[in-house]
Amino acid sequence: MERKIPFIFDLQDYYPTSATGYLADVKSILGRYLKGFFETMTRYLIRNADVVSVPGVALAMYAKDIGAKRVYILPNGISEHFLKRYDGEKIRRKLGYDDNDMIVGYVGSIEFWLDMKTLIKAVSIAKMNRLPIKLLLIGRHLQTGYSLKVKRWLEEYDVKDIATWLDFVSHEEVPEYIAAIDVATIPFDTENPTAYYAAPNKLWEYLSQGVSVASTPIPEALAYRFIRKLFIVKTSEEYVKVFEKIFKSKDKFLDPYIEQILQKRLWKHSADMLREIFRTLKSAKQHY
Predict the structure, then answer these.
(1) Phi, psi dihedrals of residue 165, rounded to the nearest 5°
(2) For residue 186, what are the β-bridge partners?
(3) What is the pLDDT of residue 84?
(4) What's residue 4's pLDDT?
(5) Domain architecture of the chain: domains with CATH
């Protein structure tokens, strides 16, 4: 009897730059060397895995182009408590916001794969246009000094006085904070492969609370651009147009279609899909 152990490679990020970014500037000489090393390693693992699992469409195409035998999309999910709707008023009062304030927010790590400068510039333009805008950042850096750049941009674009920057909040509290936001953002830097290939579950966490979302054109967002509450933006001016549009409507109606998608994107469904892959591989890899 010959028994082979199945090998599943879980490709959660574009590892060549996501790993490099924590060690060096990706564009530096050292960064280019490290990226090449991690790229070689990643390609080897993809080609030799029985199955490559990925969270989104961009990484699936990447794995297939390299030569993966089989690729399965196991979506990043949301926890069940995001299915509960909050009105956000408690958080808005806690943070000192007025009823008329337009809250633009971001929830997540403040790291090198973001393009926060374009977003902050947009908030500055909206402020000069006399929109009662406020910027809410929830999260902090992980390892790099990118957050220091964000602090400089807040001062440079004169929005520090209308910005509130909180630390990470508990996972259970996240949907209530999201509900306090009018436009939630996914300001990923599309020129950074870590961001370009990402499949951020914050998209679905934002949408779970009926919040409008402004995202840069990463493939995972483009795949769902038909959703009415999702706006694709490239420039500061395009952000501002979204801010002004949402300010006029303040619409937090949750489309029943989105509710159906959310039900299918719970973590338990991704776990069930992974369990089925295990079962299939176990059956295929046993030779008697």
Answers:
(1) -120, 110
(2) 215
(3) 92
(4) 72
(5) 2-77+266-287 (3.40.50.2000), 81-261 (3.40.50.2000)
Q: Token match 């920057």: residue?
A: 165
Phi, psi of 111 (to 5 degrees): -135, 180
CA distances from 144 to 70, 183, 220, 264 (A): 34, 27, 25, 35
Non-local (6+) Cβ contacts of 250 within 8 A are: 182
The predicted model scores a pTM of 0.90
Residue whose entry in the numeric block shows the structure tokens 């651009």:
225
For residue 156 the two structure tokens come to 């440079």
For residue 118, the tally of other CB atoms under 10 A from its CB is 19
Rounded to an integer, what distance in angstroms lies between the CA atom of residue 244 and that of residue 55?
33
Mean pLDDT by 10 residues, the chain (288 residues): 74 89 85 91 94 94 95 91 92 95 97 96 97 97 91 98 97 96 97 93 94 96 92 98 91 77 89 89 59
